[in-house]
Amino acid sequence: MNAVKIGMTIEEAAECTGIGRNTMRKLVDWGKLPVLKVGRKTIIRRDTLERFMTVNQGRNLLNQNDVRRVD
Predict the structure, then answer these.
(1) DSSP string for 15-58
(2) What confidence score (pLDDT) does residue 61 get?
(3) Within a 10 A sphere around the Cβ of 33, how many other Cβ atoms?
(4) Bridge partner list, 69
(5) Would you tell me which CATH number, out of the four given (3.40.50.2300, 1.10.540.10, 3.30.479.10, 1.10.1660.10), belongs to the domain 1-71?
(6) pLDDT at site 1
(7) Which three-class secondary structure state does DSSP give residue 7?
């Protein structure tokens, strides 16, 4: 069965988008990218990540004030 995963770890989301792991963690810590916490694991929904990428296209993701939060 080749089901598409709807949730990704921070590492998988970073690999999928080309955003560095540390930057992805900052986005989560800043509250710009909502996540699901399962114990110590952080899960990012694929649709949320896609929305985040669309909303923040052309923005500097290293500048906390420039990044738009998604819900």
Answers:
(1) HHHT--HHHHHHHHHTTSS--EEETTEEEEEHHHHHHHHHHTTT
(2) 95
(3) 26
(4) none
(5) 1.10.1660.10
(6) 58
(7) strand
Residues 42-61 have pLDDT tens digits of 999 999 999 999 999 999 99
Integer-rounded Cα Rg, in Å, for the chain is 12
Cβ pair 16, 52 in contact under 8 A: no
Q: Burial, 61: exposed, middle or buried (Cβ in 10 Å; 0-12, 13-18, 19+)? A: buried
Residue 44: both structure tokens together? 């990012």
CA dist., res. 39 & res. 57, Å (int): 31
What tokens appear for 21 in the block? Answer: 């792991």
Alpha-carbon distance of 8 to 5, in angstroms, equals 7
Burial class (CB in 10 A: 0-12, 13-18, 19+), 59: exposed
